[in-house]
Amino acid sequence: MTRSPRSRSTVSLVLGLPDDIQGCLFDLDGVLTQTAKVHAAAWKQAFDDFLRRWSDEHHQRFVEFDQLRDYDEYVDGKPRDAGVRSFLGSRGIDLPEGQADDGAGARTVHGVGNAKNEILLKLIHDDGVEPYGGSVRYVKAATAAGLRRAVVSSSTNCHDVLAAAGIADLFETVIDGHVATRDGLEGKPAPDTFLAGAKALGLAPSQAAVFEDALAGVQAGKAGHFAFVVGVDRVDQAQALHDHGADVVVRDLDELLEAR
Asked: What is the pTM assigned to this prediction?
């Protein structure tokens, strides 16, 4: 576990958090469940399929989607359509938005995003979902300590993933992509969804901690002025998580328990 120079010094003996924290806001993919790699694989297949066709039609060299670098830089933690815009924009490709129900083959932002979602759901159905054991132990410890708990994710499949992982009953509320669309919440790195999560638990940002593995998510926690932001480093980007606003960086959440 590594701390940034601006990390708080008053830490609870139980959970490794400042003593005044009353609630925890957890990202889903990469923090609670081992689905970040599944998302990355689904994005790669969807983007590579699109890029091959685009390259052939425009007589350009095909450059594949990098499942580590491109995923972390342009997609991870963002709403699906924002991820499509961000990555394709990095390749100089500007697609029309299209309609929310566009088919997977449509040359639109929604079409590419829907293609990715179809691939993701198949991967989840075929392979299942595993939670991170250390995260489950941490959430149970937070529950035992009387802290409020919410999941905050840009995914529209959040409830399905929580149920498939067998951890849905550990949380009091979920702020997901459907809630964000319904309530007009801007996606990460904007703090809107985390702020909605805190509000749903009856807490101010100064009373809540954010747990994120994505750079955009950590940035959102910082932008929302939350009391404490925990960066979860699954892909060797500890320094980048610190740079984007994490107060502490761990490889798994139970490191915070072991720091007692």
From this structure: 0.78
